[in-house]
Amino acid sequence: MTITITAFERSPDGGQGLARDTRVRWALEEVRQPYAVRLVSFGAMKEPAHLALHPFGQIPTYEDGDLTLFETGSIVFHIAERHAGLLPSDVNARSRAITWMFAAVNTVEPPILELANAKLLEGDKPWSAQRIPVVEERVRNRLDQLSTRLGDADWLDGAFSAGDLMMVSVLLRMRASGLLDEFPNLAAYVARGEARPAYQRAFDAQFAVNSKPPIG
Ligand SMILES: N[C@@H](CCC(=O)N[C@@H](CS)C(=O)NCC(=O)O)C(=O)O
Question: What are phi and psi of 143, to 5 degrees?
Fold first, then answer.
């Protein structure tokens, strides 16, 4: 049975690894599972066929036989549960790694998304210039807390895990803002994640799609 994921036919970032299929590709590459990709347009994502897979009309989705999943946290968890390499076997260490996965999507990603939305979707509003520094401060606060916890460790809890995969993926979205560079240990942490051969393969595969000339 071939695993099939969905990804943007044309990613808004031009394939720089910010679209969330990168996380899923990365997890599959870490555990050396082959996969197929079905590219979808923004229009097609809101059509019934895709909505049947993803109730919110987004990418990525994950299909394997009669199982269909959405939400990257859940997809990466599913991959990590079924294949060795992304979660420790010790029960407590495993639970801590899963905790970091939740922290990535539930505690660190929300203020990062809020900032992206404040800039991209609300940047033309009259109150935007006042709001952006407030939201930036919220992100800075989270990064500061995460930076303190990471300290000079390579990864969040021992060996690289799905928790790091999710956290690095979330933090990557911050780089363009310059905020990540205020925390050198986090910037180095993200660079360590990106240097992993599995990440490189995931990035290259996504970039290859987006560097092709526009369709039509
Ligand atoms: N919480 C979801 C977020 C999924 C998401 O926001 N996907 C974006 C691409 S990175 C998307 O499809 N955006 C288009 C849209 O929402 O219409 C996850 O982690 O899978």
Answer: -65, -40
- Tell me the best of 20, 167, 173 to mutate to test the pocket of ligand 1, counting ligand atoms within 8 Å of each CB and taking the most: 20
Q: Give the model confidence (pLDDT) of 112-149 as tens digits.
A: 999 999 999 998 999 999 999 999 999 999 999 999 99
CA distance 119 to 173: 13
Distant-in-sequence contacts of 177-183, Cβ < 8 A, 24+ apart: 177/115, 177/136, 177/139, 179/136, 179/139, 179/140, 179/143, 180/143, 182/140, 182/143, 183/143, 183/144, 183/146, 183/147
In the prediction, which pLDDT does 6 show? 98
How far does the centroid of ligand 1 lie from the alpha carbon of residue 54, in Å? 10
pLDDT tens, 59-109? 999 999 999 999 999 999 999 999 999 999 999 999 999 999 999 999 999
The values of phi and psi at residue 49, to 5°, are -60, -40
Nearest ligand 1 atom to the CA of 20 is 10
Residues with CB under 6 A from ligand 1: 19-20, 45, 57-59, 71-72
Please give the Cα distance from 101 to 166 (Å, whole number): 6
